[in-house]
Design a protein that fits this description.
- The complex is a heterodimer of chains A (179) and B (188).
- Chain A is 4% helix and 56% strand.
- Chain A is built from 1 helix and 11 strands.
- The chains are: A mainly beta (179), B alpha/beta (188).
Chain lengths: 179, 188
């Protein structure tokens, strides 16, 4: 496989929060809990030597379709927002192969930092309606939440656990190049 | 530092109330235990009664929890679980869930029973409920079995139990300090 650094012009690319989303999915029984972070920020710094992706998300902005669950997610059983108000990500390498992208880096959840690999697709750059270059990254990775101390679970009456340990993180990132 | 101490028993000769009294008498320096005795006045939970002005007994409990740095619970075991009255009081405290005063608060659970197991199942269920409310629940357990032999005339006669109670309160105080440090670090 031939890889190259991201094919974007050098400069600072800022995440457009309105047109981006950071979501997660936790399997339970035959379904899945879906949630998003309403507040996040990110930057893609492109130089001639490569590209670096960094970002943060506010735990307090977790949004799921159940207010009781939203409150529980803030608590020490899950993210412990009071002690660890942010999640963060920092890339080490971004490799492109056509439109396929593979990002290696470190994610920090609940104060625990671990390496991850996210894969997906890169589109662009293309000019947006204001004439600024824009590009889109769609990235997916799966983490074991218990490795980060996000360990709550409960035995189901019929056997088995209420929630999966594996959580899929889905990032839909739309960047606009600063002029 | 102020620790609210809640016994889950209403009985005047309660072994669990004796535990919280002993914990108060032997609290580490700098820690004041305040015994809460309002359990019997808490009405059955009804969301309709919580719509505008909660009952006075409930408001008093919510305030007492909010004003404490930590909470120590001593629970008896009724039918392998915590007493209904205690669960009912926590159901009141828990609403609304996102801002309830037990959220993020360090809490510890101890328990006594006349049998040999020392209310371990009630303690486990109470920890589960407190976690659901968002409290910081200490893992440490203190199961005082055969309470009738260890608690005499309302006083904890077994000095080993007294020492373990003091250790639980000390761990609770350390959890309060750790919480304060974590908040300061997160804000920095």
């Amino acid at each position: 496989m031939s890889t190259s650094t991201i094919a974007a012009p050098p400069g600072t690319w800022t995440l457009d929060e309105v047109h981006s989303s950071i979501a997660f999915q936790v399997p339970y029984l035959a379904g899945a809990f879906n949630g998003t972070f309403r507040e996040f920020a990110g930057t893609l710094d492109v130089t001639d030597d490569g590209a670096a992706l960094t970002g943060t998300a506010k735990v307090a902005s977790v949004d799921v379709k159940d207010n009781n669950l939203s409150a529980h997610l803030q608590s020490p059983d899950f993210f412990d927002a009071e002690s660890h108000p942010e999640l963060s990500f920092s890339s080490e390498r971004i490799a492109l192969d056509g439109e396929s992208v593979r990002v290696t880096g470190e994610i920090t959840i609940k104060g625990v930092t671990r390496p991850i690999v996210a894969t997906g697709a890169a589109h662009g750059p293309v000019p947006n309606l204001q004439g600024n270059d824009s590009l889109r990254l769609q990235l997916t990775t799966t983490v074991d939440r218990t490795e980060f101390g996000v360990s709550w679970n409960a035995e189901l009456p019929g056997g088995g656990k209420a929630l999966s340990d594996d959580v899929t993180i889905l990032a839909e990132l739309y960047f606009v190049k600063e002029t | 530092m102020r620790v609210l101490a809640i016994s889950g028993s209403l009985r005047s000769g309660s072994h669990n109330t004796a535990l919280v009294r002993a914990a108060a008498e032997h609290a580490p320096a700098g820690v004041e235990l305040v015994l809460w005795d309002g359990l019997k006045a808490i009405p059955p939970y009804d969301a309709d009664d919580d719509a505008e002005q909660a009952p006075a007994a409930v408001t008093a409990l919510r305030s007492a929890v909010a004003e404490a740095n930590a909470v120590l619970f001593a629970t008896p075991e009724y039918n392998h679980s915590l007493p209904g009255a205690l669960k009912n009081a926590l159901d009141w405290v828990s609403r609304p869930i996102a801002t309830n005063p037990l959220r993020n608060k360090p809490v510890a659970v101890v328990g006594a029973s006349t049998g040999i197991f020392g209310a371990v199942w009630a303690q486990a269920e109470l920890r589960k409920v407190l976690s659901a409310l968002g409290a910081r629940v200490l893992d440490r357990e203190l199961a005082v079995g055969q309470a009738a032999a260890r608690i005499v005339d309302g006083s904890v006669a077994d000095q080993e139990v007294v020492a373990k109670l003091s250790a639980v309160v000390a761990e609770l105080a350390a959890a309060v300090d750790a919480r304060d440090e974590a908040i300061a670090a997160a804000a920095a």
